[in-house]
Amino acid sequence: MKAAILAIGTELLIGQTIDTNSAWIGEHVTALGLTITQTLAIADDKPVMIDAIKSLSKDVDYLFITGGLGPTKDDITKDALAEVLGVEMKFDQSTNDRIVSYFVERNLQISELHKAQCYFPIGIQLLENTMGTAPGMLMQHQNCQIISMPGVPYEMKEIMKGKVLPLIESNHKRQPYYQKTIHTAGIPESSVADLIEATLDNLPESIDIAYLPSLGTVKVRVSAIGQESELQVKNVVDLLVDKLQPYVYGYDGLEIQEAVQQLMIDRGLTLATAESCTGGYISHLITSISGSSGHYNGGIVAYANEVKINQLNVNPNTITQYGAVSEEVVKEMVIGCIDSLRSDIAIAVSGIAGPTGGTELKPVGTIWICVGNKERQFTRKFGLTKNRIINIRYSSRAALILLRKFLLDQ
Amino acid sequence: MKAAILAIGTELLIGQTIDTNSAWIGEHVTALGLTITQTLAIADDKPVMIDAIKSLSKDVDYLFITGGLGPTKDDITKDALAEVLGVEMKFDQSTNDRIVSYFVERNLQISELHKAQCYFPIGIQLLENTMGTAPGMLMQHQNCQIISMPGVPYEMKEIMKGKVLPLIESNHKRQPYYQKTIHTAGIPESSVADLIEATLDNLPESIDIAYLPSLGTVKVRVSAIGQESELQVKNVVDLLVDKLQPYVYGYDGLEIQEAVQQLMIDRGLTLATAESCTGGYISHLITSISGSSGHYNGGIVAYANEVKINQLNVNPNTITQYGAVSEEVVKEMVIGCIDSLRSDIAIAVSGIAGPTGGTELKPVGTIWICVGNKERQFTRKFGLTKNRIINIRYSSRAALILLRKFLLDQ
Asked: Which of A30, A72, A277 lies nearest to residue B211, judging by beta carbons?
């Protein structure tokens, strides 16, 4: 079964909004055995929308459309769909009643503009939206099921989870598709390829391999279609993991922070963080995982030097002598953090995130990381980029990768 | 001048990677007067790639391609381009030399696979990649300039900034396009539309208006093409801002954390944060802005109750009596945070991010926020979603919006 995704909104083309919806839809319908052939983003322009809907729906079994269902004038997806289907629009009283009660419950003033949200192409099926005012729509056009949803991500997701994914599952038997992704850290993409090259040369044709490099990590996706796909993929993954140890930290959706959380909880250890240049991002990564309170006590964002001194007990002389961005300071931050937050292990980071603040000896991108307990600390120095956000994200993940190494070396 | 973006990689279609490249390219070339007609994502499949390159390049002046230039077997963009151009591939010694020295400098082992990265379609122009091993490529196909770049975001950005954007600027006179976006917070999209509807009815045809709702904010983009576009847009923005005060917190790329930073620095005040359920995300938002050290002292991520008690001086009896998620506790967190981190103002958040941990009285999504100084505190309670990440992001932005209100009410 083939599918395509159409994202509507000029904001996507001019880069004002990053399209996260298409990836989410792609992930969830691929898991049900659909093959996404393309995702297309176009402007809020009726003739362009009509062309795109017509041409995409010819080639696929499902077309997922997001965007253009809001209450305002630039929301014209329903008009375009009515034209493709060759039908008129009709007022739906139940949608009107639902919108009125939605506003009353939230103590918000209702606007006349919401009347426009109650008109739909005749003959379509409404898909309830529990998170907002615009329902989704399901319709058949020639051999294609078209699903139109709001562009607001959490509204789209609720409609997909509540209505669309169950519908796809019930519509057809699941295709025998299977995939598994191996996550590695601390090794460049080409070295990963070198390690597994010989193995890959002897694989069956049905196996597909892809490399996904990201900041500090390389993921290797193994997938196959066919009756034997699950068994085949699992066998290949075993072969590859055999070559890639000790760089493998996990599989599939698992992020480095989840791998670390599992290790910490298994060992019954508690963690705390002391962040300067990463400014809370490590803490955010850790706490974005449900259950993190099982091992994570908390953190101190020691942005000002006084916070390093008062909260983390860093010796002011160490800062004067070596500078705030130094191996000596991150070591003292780890020890101080363990004491202050009464944890077994701490992570500390201090660096120059940029784009300003660099010196000749310590240019922008110089970052020191320390991970350890009271007895033993690992430190690492990085020379990263001039880009503040990249430096924050890269060094935050590097700190978690170092923590994983520390735990495994214990 | 028209342009299209082609993102290559099965990982984009199956949702393993979110395509942030297309938004970035869209933003930067729109600013130079190009009009993006579509962005398309397709799989690592040579026939599909060839079709897409041929059909997109027919309709536009520029085609930007990202992905498929790595050292591994699934990287086949160059082969597809050679076939579209009808040329052979040729080894490039200077690229080989550069890759070898790139690896030597970083003390990494060089792999034979990098030889594949040194072959290019004959006749193309190489675009230097200072951040990685695969150079970009520029080529002419019929009336279209095709630019092919690696999919790794920071490599693509460096090639765009260093080579491609200057080329586009020099190739043609900038189109008279102008846009300005008004950012509002604390008001739903339909109420924004109600406030400005009468004004919009009387605008010239050349003005385009779009609404961009997001978590807690609504952006209104005003744009126009033509000789008078800048003046027209600025006039319209003035009219709209007149209706939308006091919800407007800024314009264009400005995020709420930047607006707050400006207010704090203007008033000479210092800020600290005390985060429980947001787990460092507020701190991350604040410190993602360059110059945040000018007002931000730091923060305490008080995940465990002991951290609230020891670091923020919250009374254990308050926690026992009212619970950690309560108005009383966030108020004590603000006061304690001001004292501990010696700041003028503090933000505190405590809530149940979910998906577990809710009770009947305090379901998942219950979040208390407090903002204030020693004399005066604003508090707000939110009933949000069951989704952990949405709850973290929404309440973090809500806290900054409340801080802005607090500062303006002083």
From this structure: A72
